[in-house]
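question for whoever is on the cluster today: can someone run the full assembly for these? two chains, 465 residues total. i dont have access anymore since they changed the login thing
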Amino acid sequence: MPIGSEHWVGANMVSDLHEIEGPDRRVAGVGFTVTNRFFHAGRPLGWFRGFAVEVDSRAISPDAVTLILRGQRFPVRQLPTLVDVWWQPLEKAQVEVLDQAITHADHHQIALVLELPLVTFTPVVDVNEIYPINPARLEAVLPTTTAAEAH
Amino acid sequence: MPHSISLNPWSFEGLLLSESMTLGGMIERAAGLGFDSIDIGDLWMNLNPNPDLARLRDLRSMTRGNDLTVSSCWFWIDLLAGLAICGDKRAVAESLRGYFAICEYLEAPYITLQNGNPAPGVSHQQAHDSLLDLYQDLEKMAEDHNVVVALEAPRSPAPFNSPQGTLELVREYGSPWLTVTPDFEAWRIPRQGMPPLSYPENPGATRLEALAVDEFEACLPFAPFIHAKFLEFNDSGTDPNFPLDDIFRAIRDSDRDHVICVEYEGWIPDLHPERDAVTETAKAIELIRHHLRPVDAQGAQVALSTADSSVARP
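^ ran it for u. tokens below:
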């Protein structure tokens, strides 16, 4: 790790926010892109011991959040178990949040609330959490693309 | 002694991660600035966990195409963490075999690793003994792949990542295949406005003073590869965060040649992300050249001999 307190180059790390429409054409959630700009990017997804999302300052249930990498859908609850799915530097992943409490707005505030181990042996994941886990938070306020605009 | 100057692309990490510079651009810049070699970090090898062979080939071609060599491959490996997580040294060694092969393919004379930190509940003595035990496997792989292990020592408060702790282990083990890589960070002088001398991966460990340069000198006979961290340059072109006059006096007086690998880290968000990392890195190589210029009996500086960036393995 470098000195200092941050774990990434944060500019444009979260982008492309769009609203997701339900079958009734009402807002059913949001999706956004996360670009892997972590220092020492290039790790199994299990490196994330916690990956929670807040939308407009409201914590989202983990059951409502899916990370999509190379077309593969991973419920975020599953991330800590993924020792063999690697996320490469600058590779983009999509995050899908399905929560009907999210309503249309021109902008949404997105926060990623992460738990990261900082003592590392890159090829394997500390699945038993022998070493301490460190909290980290990434926030962005992004303009919304509606489902109609996205189409 | 002739020394060579290498660049760790970490110096341009902010540019790479913000997509303002490509890997190829980074290598071209390194050549343009006059570096002899580059030190390639694991994150740019597209490990999964095996490396992307096409990426390695690109790295080799781009390096050769710019008349550079690869000085080292840097892997984020804490050996003690590996032992704790994997449960036994055979699994750790097996995980590292591919990394030695990467170094051999890229013709890097050094593989840079760290001893790491003992897991909670592991005593100092247990960690010490398990590292020495693991070194036997590292030594075999080093010899097999003709790659010298450079144990990075940047953290003065950490018992096995400190220069002193790493040096003690390397001396005790006593193999030319295992060496110390002192990192200027361990000699950083506390200054107001700079990040504190505690580290994200060692949140409880702090120190108040820089290490004595004597401890840097003690490492040099065992340190063919050195990490020269820089954080910021003042109007005089020097970095006031490190005792550079004394550090480079020790390097000039050293009986062996060294690869001095620049790690400009001022680009991090806590320091000077607004500064151009290429311009700042150019100051680093200029400063090193200035400091390496020998002084003759009359106190005048003499011309530098041409650096030989080839490395004599044990």
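summary bc i know u wont read the tokens: Chain A is about 5% helix and 45% strand. The mean pLDDT of chain A is 94.
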